Amino acid sequence: MSDEVEERRRRVAEAAARAAGAVHLRYRGERLTLEVKRDNPIDYATRADVESQAAARDVILGAFPGEAVVGEEGAGDRSEVERRAEAGCWLIDPLDGTMEYVHGSPVFSAIVSYVKGGETLAAAVYFPVLGELYSAGAGRGATLNEEPVRVSGQTELRSAIFSCAYRSSLPERARLFAAGLAKLLPHIEAFRLPGAPSVGACNVARGAFDLFAHTGVPTPEQRRGGLLPAQPWEAAAFVLLVREAGGAVAAYNGGPPSVLGLNVYAASEALLRRFFAVLDEPGA
Amino acid sequence: MASLPPDLERRLRVAEAAARAAGAVQKLYYASGIASEAKHGDPRDRLSRADTEGQEAAVAVIRAAFPDERIVGEEDDLPRDQLGPYLEACWLIDPVDGTINYVHDFPSFAAGVAYVSEAEPVVGAIYVSIHDEMFSAARGLGATLNGRPIHVVAPRELKDAFVGIHIREVGPAAVAQFIDSTRRILPRAHGVRLLGCPMVSLAYVACGRLDCFGTFSPTKLAPWDLAPAAIVLTEAGGVVATQHGTPFDILEPGISGASSQALLDELFAVARG
């Protein structure tokens, strides 16, 4: 692929993420008035999701007619997503941070990426209320509002902020998560559960956080297991963004990351290895 | 009930202006993370400048309006047992609440200013500088976010609630307490967040972004950390309590809060197992 096309893909990813974000801004204003009427906020988010995904899709197809576009809304089954990601397709998560969105928090995003042959070539994450646009192109670095961003480069756990997303109502998952946290907390400077996965990943890319695990602390079983499927429309963008910002990424089992899987994102390779080493110590 | 000064509205505007002034200093030394050279300088140095100069800026605003009143800030470093007499009537300033976030450039930090009468917060302002959000309140006048009235969400059970938690100390006992309570809360709540700044978390309860907030391991919060959040949340229709769930006390080293007493009680019951 020529440089020109790659650069164009990145610009289109940015424009598509902005278009999805603009829809959410519009509904966010309306939601605040509807809130008084006690409308069901979940239904509302869903309607905004569908419209914002359509807005992003229109931008992409306007620039690259006929290309495959897979959105979180109505994505179909996983093998279909994998096949398309191999052949080349656009991935859209129109709203990352639904919980924050429906609760009126300003911290939610729209994510757009282009993947081919298991690699992400372009990615954009847009936080519309904050006015923050992260973007990355393969081999071209990562930016926040057009300015280059870099990871912190932190190598020591004791100075590191570890963040993760977590979403489960299962007591057993909570027990395993807590057991992993109990191992980590004595070694790190701070722990954060900031909300939407894109908050964790983007804050690693810009050097605020030093580690981000996509869904909870990797459990002993996840450390020994194979690649874990995740939300590809999130992971594909995160892998490129953090790597282009100079960070290191690995799957939960410590192996090479997957653009379709659960990964740990870190400010350095050394920090990533120290993180896994603490988790693999014997104990709880 | 504390006796109220007659000029509450004016004190509220002064608290907002003082918090905004401290917030402006925060932004001055905040390395945005955008390839900033300053970011690679000593972050503790940036924090100490934001603390010192932020408090000076807030003090200047208050002095201009109320030249003869007592002002106590985090930077004055007064021990807790000497604060009692001041709290009869004074201004409190926390130039940077959420210091670890500030040092690491995660924008969940705030400047807090309060006016306290008879050990009760009666005016408070919380300015989240990077997001340009001003949460403020005065006794009987309601709470606002950037001038618009805010209110806690309608009461709901923990299973439908968005819960804020916090950990400060990382000694073995504190970690064990945090882990036990977190393990119990996670499967029982709709969602859990740890933003690393109690003042911001409580402001979020006040405007409905969270339903409740609690700390279940030791904290070392001071009156200037607690006071702005306590009055903002109370005026937004919520409840505040100590870290143990007992009635709010400005001299206790912790705080909790919720959209309703029932939810706060449920949070404590679940956290304690």
Give the structure's gist in a few sentences.
In chain A, 43% of the residues lie in helices and 20% in strands. Chain A is an alpha+beta fold.
Q: What does this protein look like?
A:
Chain A is of the alpha+beta class. Chain A folds into two domains: 3-148, Fructose-1,6-Bisphosphatase, Chain A, domain 1 (2-Layer Sandwich); 157-279, D-Maltodextrin-Binding Protein, domain 2 (3-Layer(aba) Sandwich). Helices cover 43% and strands 20% of the residues of chain A. Chain A has helices at residues 3-34, 41-63, 78-87, 98-102, 171-184, 197-205, 220-224, 232-244, 269-279, and strands at 69-71, 89-96, 109-116, 119-127, 132-137, 142-144, 147-148, 161-164, 190-192, 211-213, 248-251, 263-266. In chain A, the strands form two sheets. A seven-stranded mixed beta sheet of chain A has the order 1-2-3-4-5-6-7. In chain A, a hairpin with a 2-residue loop joins strand 6 and strand 7 (147-148). The longest helix of chain A is centred in the N-terminal third of the chain and has 32 residues, at 3-34. Mean pLDDT of chain A is 90; it is low at 32-38. With 273 residues, chain B is of the alpha+beta class. Chain B has two domains: 8-150, Fructose-1,6-Bisphosphatase, Chain A, domain 1 (2-Layer Sandwich), CATH 3.30.540; 158-272, 3-Layer(aba) Sandwich (D-Maltodextrin-Binding Protein, domain 2). Chain B is 36% helix and 22% strand. Chain B has seven helices and twelve strands. Chain B has helices at 8-29, 43-65, 99-104, 172-185, 198-206, 223-235, 261-272, and strands at 71-73, 89-97, 110-117, 120-128, 133-138, 142-145, 148-150, 162-166, 191-193, 212-215, 239-241, 256-258. In chain B, the strands form two sheets. A seven-stranded mixed beta sheet of chain B has the order 1-2-3-4-5-6-7. A five-stranded mixed beta sheet of chain B has the order 9-8-10-12-11, with helices on both faces. Mean pLDDT of chain B is 92; it is low at 33-39. The chains are: A alpha+beta (284), B alpha+beta (273).
